[in-house]
Write a structure and sequence with these properties.
single chain, mainly alpha, 2 domains, two-stranded antiparallel ribbon, 31% helix
Length: 87
C-alpha cells in the first residue's frame, strides 16, 4: 500500500483571476478541495509531454496563468527558443 501521509506543506500565491480559474476547474471536475485540484493539475502537468522548460534568471511573477507575462520565460524542451524549431 502506498503511504498517503503528506508531511510537507506548499504555499503558493495566486491572483484573484488565477484563483477563480482554479476554482472553476475544480468545480467543473468535481474535485473535493483546492488542494486536490492543485495535486491533480500537478500530476497532469508532470506527465505532459512537450512542455516548455524554464530559462534561468526568471522571477516567480514571470510564470502567470492569466493575463500577459513578461517576454517568454520558457523555451521548448527541444532547445529551440520559440517552440517552433527556430533558435
Amino acid at each position: 500500500m502506498i503511504d498517503q501521509a503528506r508531511g510537507e506543506r506548499l504555499q503558493i500565491m495566486l491572483t484573484a483571476d488565477e484563483l477563480a480559474l482554479l476554482d472553476s476547474w475544480r468545480f467543473k471536475c468535481r474535485m473535493p478541495s483546492r488542494a486536490a485540484a492543485v495535486r491533480e493539475l500537478l500530476k497532469r502537468g508532470l506527465a505532459a509531454e512537450g512542455f516548455n522548460m524554464a530559462e534561468g534568471g526568471n522571477k516567480s511573477e514571470d510564470f502567470r496563468i492569466t493575463g500577459s507575462s513578461t517576454a517568454s520565460p520558457t523555451k521548448d524542451r527541444r532547445g529551440d527558443a520559440d517552440g517552433h524549431g527556430n533558435e
